[in-house]
Amino acid sequence: MASTRISAQLPPDIDPTKAPIAFGRRALPKLNEEIQSPEPLTQQHALMALCDLVHDPEKVYQAIQIGFVENLKTLLLHHDSTVRQKTTEILCIMAMHNVGLIQKGVISALAELLDDPAEIENALIPSPMSLLSPPAGAADILHAGLIPLLMFKLKSELDEIQELILDTLSNCLRVEASEALSSGAITILKQKLTHSSVTIRSKAARVLLAIGTHPEGKVVVGEVIPVLVSLLEDTDPEVQASATGALMFATVKPQGRFSALGAEAIPPLLKLVAGETSKARLSAIKTLTMLAELPEGRRKLLDHTDMFQQCLNDPCEAVKRAAEIAICVIKWKPY
Amino acid sequence: MSFPRAAHGNGGIGVAVTAGLSASQSPAGSPRCRGAGCASVTAAVVVCCCCPCCREKEPVRYANLMYDRRVVRGNTYALQVVPASTQLDLFEIQRQREARRRALARKRAKEQMQLRTPEPVEGREHVHVQTELYLEEISDRIIEVDMECQTDAFLDRPPTPFFIPAKTGRDVATQIEEGELFDFDVEVEPILEVLVGKTMEQALLEVMEEEELAQLWAHQRAYAELRNAELAEVQRLEEQDRRYREEKERRKLQHMQMLQKQKETTEKIAAWAFAKRYLTDLIPSVFNNLRESGFFYDPIERDIETEFLPWLMTEVEETLEKKVLGRMMLDSLIRTVVEKRLDAFSQEPLSGQTEAPAEEPRPIDAALQEADETEAADLPVTASEESDQPVAEEQLSRRISFQLEEPDRAETEDLETDVVLCPFRRMSLSHSRALKDVFQILALLISS
Q: Where is this region: Disordered (chain B) (predicted)?
């Protein structure tokens, strides 16, 4: 009788659509050769098998060493859609392991596929990109000039794809924001901030955060401050956290500070600070610190210093420091 | 046998107590090991376990330490140990000799009992030979061969062809009723368990992978948050610093401007004070200068000075010129008269002339007095008498020319104007009085 003991091996699966996998170290080289064969059926079989193998990081490493990535790049432009889809999937899983795919120029190869008319690949393409982007791939993406293209896609794609695109954008724009600004990012993002989906709102706010880290971005994000302030009272904590982060960077400049004060940002921020478990705590404290640099802000916040005192006992080190700095700034006098 | 050990590798160490004694004489009466050929002493034990000759013969007996003869008892302080007395008893010596003889005998007997091959016959030699079918090289070194085995990279093995064995035997049929072969429900259970188990395992693996990813993302997110906060802090501090710097610059500029203005103001005040002081006596000095340079004049005085006096001077000049002219005329007249007189007197004798001039001076005096009178009356109003004077002078000069003698030295002490009267200096003394009078008239003329 078969024993029920679970083994360390994957269970043997007899899938007719998969090529048989050779033993041990021979598996990947064999699949490599199969992939290069002229028959599409063989290629498909091999890709299916590879898809399963790639979940193991060791295999991924070996695959990259053997030189799989070149073949996969060629396959991305195959005429058969299944092949393309499977290749994208494989690249997606490989990207998750973060073993240095970026040097192989995968991003540029992926970029060529972005304009593929078939929908299935499009659903998958941004995901390896978004996985590859932080932070080393960001330079590559910028280099390939993909940002205007991504922005354009942002308008027209499905929601899930939009989320992925927003992820990619937030990672890239942290490095450099001028391209995005020149392609009119702010208007698009402003729309997204009022989207019905929660994830899209939070990710759009994250993109704004990334834009705001640059000086020219701050000026532009300043226009969106009223919307961000309204997002502070959103029900989802993710959205709140992202919006607070974006506000934090937007209020560094004095114009931003004035517009934030004008939009009555202080009460919701105080609520966020008071909430013990909110993710936005750190960002809220920092934003209040920025607002406290203005005289009106300081006046209003002098009444609420006890809340910052409470934060001093927070277990998180960063929150403690931020609360100390906030108290210093609030109590500062010009003389 | 205090420390017995079951298996001795080297029996001599086993019992430290016994080892020392095994080779030496034992105290009298102590039992000896009964093993053949063993001369060691044992205490209350038949066989000692330490010596190798006895080891395999009889089992080891264990004895109590307390009753071991070899352990020294009693007071050890004053014990004079005589380890082995060199003086042996006769009996002891005998016994030893006997034991030795017995041992030798035993050995010889053993040797003889061993089987030996008979000695070789004359001229022959025993040689060891192998008698098997195949010769074998005998050496004490074991033959070793290194063998390696490695799996080659698999050549592409074609898939095994489906094996369908050839049909052999006879076909026989039989009928299986239900429940005869196996009970499905019982048999299927383990298979199901495996299936379900493996499926679950696969699912768990996948879920674990996803969870791992999610955790990685969460970790990254937390880090990103911290990083953002720090970045914002840095930017805020930069902004603050920029503001403070700008404010400082502005204040410095303001202060500089204020200082500048102050400096200018003090300079202005100083200049104003100095100028004021400098210019206080400007007006008096100006007026002084003007007055000194004659800008403030009395108009009447000026008028008199500018107009009247020049006119007066010109008039005086004219009058004087006229007078001068008159005098010059007189001069010339006198000169001619004197020359003529001289000529005349140089020709005539001197006596006749003295009376004539004596008489003539008197009418000349009278004429002169008349002229004096007329001229004295004319003096105040010289303008109107201009025409008379030359006539009077002409008359005078005619008269004088007749009366005058040759010019000798005249007494010229009364003469006031030498220039006019130069020719008269040479006149003689006799005519001096007359000439004096003439000269007086001339002086009066001049002084008017």
A: 373-394
> What pLDDT score does A275 carry?
75
CA distance B291 to A55: 122
Q: Cα–Cα distance between B16 and A239 in angstroms, integer?
A: 89
DSSP letter string over A258-292?
HHHHHTT-HHHHHHHHH-TT-TTHHHHHHHHHHHT
Cβ contacts of B13 within 8 Å, gap of 6 or more: B19
Q: For helices A57-66 and A68-75, what crossing angle results, to 10°?
A: 80
Nearest to B444 by CA among B389, B388, B362: B389
What is the Cα B171 distance to its own chain's centre?
A: 109
Closest by CA position to B416, among listed B390, B440, B392: B440
CA A226 to chain centre: 24
Residue with tokens 């403030």: B296
Q: What residue spans of B47-183 are helical by DSSP H?
A: 52-55, 90-113
Cβ-nearest to B194 among A2, A209, A290: A2
Say which residues have a Cβ less than 8 Å from residue A95's Cβ, sequence separation at least 6: A101, A106, A127, A128, A131, A132
CB B48 within 8 A of CB B42: yes
One-letter identity of residue B397? S
A1: chain B residues, CB-CB within 8 Å = 190
Q: Which amino acid belongs to residue B214?
A: A
Residue B41's SS3 state is strand
Q: How far is A286 from chain B (nearest CA, A)?
A: 7
**CB contact, 8 Å: B189 with chain A?**
no
Which residue among B201, B202, B229 sits closest to A282, beta carbon to beta carbon? B229
Q: Considering CB atoms only, which of A11, A96, A322 is closest to B229?
A: A322
Amino acid B384: pLDDT:
44
Residues 6 or more apart whose Cβ sits within 8 Å of residue B21:
B40, B41, B70
Task: Decide if A26 and B153 are in contact by the 8 Å CB cutoff.
Answer: yes
Q: Which residues of B281-296 are buried (b: 16+ CB within 10 A; e: fewer)?
A: eeeeeeeeeeeeeeee
Name which residue leads in pLDDT, A250 or A122: A250
For residues B253 and B260, give the distance between their C-alpha atoms in angstroms, rounded to a whole number: 10
Nearest to B226 among A1, A22, A318 (CB): A318
Contact at CB, B229 and A283, closer than 8 angstroms: yes
What is the rounded CA–CA span in Å between residue B179 and residue B167? 30
- Determine the residue among B215, B236, B241 to mutate to test chain A binding: the one whose Cβ has the most chain A Cβ atoms within 10 Å: B236
The pLDDT value given to residue B272? 95
Task: Express as a percent the part of chain B with pLDDT over 90.
Answer: 19
Q: Which residues of B touch A286 (CB under 8 A)?
A: 229, 232-233, 236
User: What is the distance between the terminal CA atoms of chain B, rounded to a whole angstrom?
Assistant: 197
pLDDT at A127: 64
Q: Does B213 touch chain A (CB under 8 A)?
A: yes
Q: Which DSSP state fits B159? A: P
Instruction: Please tell me which of the candidates B191, B209, B243 has its beta carbon nearest to residue A2.
Output: B191
A99 vs B contacts (CB less than 8 Å): none
The model carries a pTM of 0.50
Instruction: Indicate the pLDDT class of residue B448, thresholds 50, 70 and 90.
Output: low
